[in-house]
């Protein structure tokens, strides 16, 4: 699966820029804690990946402020769902969110989930952060 996630990242302008250290920091803990979903098509090709942390309200505020990134002790620090990575370069993001709502987090119906999205500006090569919320 890790190879599939790395392959997906090559089709995402944001994730293609990640260093090995960033991958270890943002992906590996989710595998260790079984806090991820990995999606393949009918031919077994990877199409999407999503992971999550259960953070405290204090950690969520810190992450949303951008003052630091997720650290190992954050991954299970509370009850609030935070999505560090959603990689869906082929247009499967809505299907992933639907699966999260209906299958993965059905017991948390009504909870607001947050993530910080990055958009690469090709003209200048910078990344703009945008906080995004959705309900389970």
Automatic annotation (TrEMBL):
Top-rank lineage group of the source organism: Bacteria
Leader sequence residues: none
Keyword field contains Lipid metabolism: no
Family annotation (Pfam families): HlyC (PF02794)
Record key words, sorted: Acyltransferase, Cytolysis, Cytoplasm, Transferase
EC numbers, comma separated: 2.3.1.-
BP GO terms, sorted: killing of cells of another organism; toxin metabolic process
UniProt xrefs under InterPro entries: RTX_toxin-activating_protC_bac
Gene Ontology molecular-function annotations: acyltransferase activity
Broadest EC class assigned to this enzyme: transferase
Protein location: Cytoplasm
GO cellular component entries: cytoplasm
Family from the record: Belongs to the RTX toxin acyltransferase family.
Function: Involved in fatty acylation of protoxin at internal lysine residues, thereby converting it to the active toxin.
Protein name: RTX toxin-activating lysine-acyltransferase
Source taxonomy: Bacteria, Pseudomonadati, Pseudomonadota, Betaproteobacteria, Neisseriales
């Amino acid at each position: 699966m890790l190879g599939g996630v790395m392959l997906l990242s090559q089709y995402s302008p944001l994730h293609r820029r990640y260093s090995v250290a960033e991958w270890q920091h943002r992906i590996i803990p989710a595998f260790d804690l079984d806090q991820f979903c990995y999606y393949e098509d009918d031919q077994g090709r990877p199409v999407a990946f999503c992971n999550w942390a259960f953070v405290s309200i204090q950690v969520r505020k810190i992450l949303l402020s951008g003052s630091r990134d997720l650290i190992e002790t954050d991954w299970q620090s509370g009850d609030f769902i935070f999505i560090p990575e959603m990689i869906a370069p082929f247009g499967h993001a809505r299907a992933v969110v639907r699966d999260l709502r209906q299958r993965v987090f059905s017991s948390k119906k009504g909870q607001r989930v947050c993530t910080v999205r990055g958009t690469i500006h090709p003209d200048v090569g910078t990344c703009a952060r945008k906080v995004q919320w959705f309900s389970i």
